[in-house]
Structures are given as C-alpha cells and as structure tokens.
C-alpha cells in the first residue's frame, strides 16, 4: 500500500486569510469593499516581503513580516493607524478561522492508514500553534514544520517548495486548491526542472482530496 505524506500550508489553505477583512472593517471603521481590498493588499505584501528577503538572502520571522506588511498596506491605502490598532489586528490574525471544509477533510485523511498529514508553514511555531488552536484544529495533533531553523522562506529549495509551481519545480506532485474557480493560470514553468508543468489535479475544496488520493493507491 502506498504511503502519502501530505503537507498542508496553513495560511490561505487551511485558514481563511481573507476573513481578516472583518477585523479591518471593525477596527478601522472601513466599508466592506475597502476592508477587503486592504486585506488583499496586506496578504500580497506579506508574501512579497518573504520573496524579497529570500532574494537578498536575509531573514526576519513571519510575525515581524506580517506586521510590516500590514503597516505597508494601511499606508498605501491611506488609512490612519497607531500602535494599539496594529496590536489588535495582529491579535486577530492569530485567530483566523479555518475554511468550512478544513476540519472534516483533515479528519477524513487522518483515518487512512497510508496517509500522514503535516503542516509546512512560513509562520513561526508560535504563530502556527496559536492559529491551529484558535481554529479548532489542534486536536488533530499534526506535526508542524516551519522555515524558522533554515531562515529561508518558501519557495527556496532549502526549505522545500511552496504552492503548486514551487512544488513542481522540486519534482513533487501538487494539487491546486482553486476555491475561487479561476483555473490554472501560472505561466512560470517550464524551466529546467524535474517536475511536471502543471498540477496533477485541480480541486475546488479540500473535501475533494481524500477521494483523489484514494484513487492513486
């Protein structure tokens, strides 16, 4: 029987990062559209900061990056803030809810004897622990792997791959969770990589993954 090790990212895969728009709206008194746009900008800069640090061979922990990218997004959006506001929003980021299909899908995967579920995240151990606990996922007792020891962010090969393209570039198989149903549009590959040029499967929710993997046994 095959043995699968399934590495889930935390932010944006298990936990809904877009939900932080609610905290932005409440804390900063923003309308729905402004809060959602600011949330998306925050997430964009959070990821961009990690890539820029990688390219400069520098490192700051993900909690610091998350706060810096929040400040960047607020400034660019023309939103006034102070340190107490930042603290409140950072606290909200540590208690993001999971997607509706997360808990049931992880539970179903854990029932299989040939599947091991792990967490692989840019976040610190402390961030991941708080987030999983707040989202009601800590009882699954998943092994958590972070980039902290290597001080390099995904998709640096030293810490392995992030997202579908990063995984494919290291020869791994990848599943793209396309919740928004926009299709696969990444054009970075092909490069001189050992892997495929696109995900082996596109799904629209985590609940599709157990059946997909069962078909590969």
TrEMBL record:
Keyword terms of this UniProt record: Hydrolase
Q: What Pfam families has UniProt attached to this entry?
A: Hydrolase
Superkingdom of source: Eukaryota
InterPro entries on file? 2-HAD, HAD-like_sf, HAD-SF_hydro_IA, HAD_sf, PGP-like_dom2, S-2-haloacid_dehalogenase
As one GO molecular function, the record gives: phosphatase activity
Family label = Belongs to the HAD-like hydrolase superfamily. S-2-haloalkanoic acid dehalogenase family.
- Tell me what this protein is called: Haloacid dehalogenase
State the organism of origin. Sanghuangporus baumii
Taxonomy of origin reads: Eukaryota, Fungi, Dikarya, Basidiomycota, Agaricomycotina
């Amino acid at each position: 029987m095959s043995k699968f090790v399934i590495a889930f990212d935390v932010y944006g895969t298990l936990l809904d990062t877009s939900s932080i728009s609610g905290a932005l709206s409440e804390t900063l008194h923003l309308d729905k559209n402004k809060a959602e746009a600011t949330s998306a900008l925050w997430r964009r800069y959070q990821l961009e900061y990690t890539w820029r640090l990688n390219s400069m061979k520098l490192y700051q922990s993900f909690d610091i990056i998350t706060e810096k990218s929040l400040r960047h997004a607020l400034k660019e959006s023309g939103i006034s803030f102070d340190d107490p506001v930042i603290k409140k929003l950072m606290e909200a980021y540590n208690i993001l809810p999971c997607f509706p299909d997360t808990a049931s899908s992880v539970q179903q995967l854990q029932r299989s004897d040939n599947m091991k579920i792990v967490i692989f995240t840019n976040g610190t151990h402390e961030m991941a622990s708080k987030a999983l606990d707040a989202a009601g996922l800590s009882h699954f007792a998943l092994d958590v792997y972070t980039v902290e020891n290597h001080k390099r962010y995904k998709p640096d090969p030293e810490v392995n791959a992030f997202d579908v393209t990063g995984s494919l570039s290291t020869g791994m198989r990848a599943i793209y969770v396309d919740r928004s149903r926009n299709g696969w549009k990444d054009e970075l590959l092909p490069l001189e990589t050992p892997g495929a040029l696109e995900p082996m499967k596109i799904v629209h929710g985590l609940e599709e993954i157990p059946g997909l993997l069962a078909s590969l046994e």
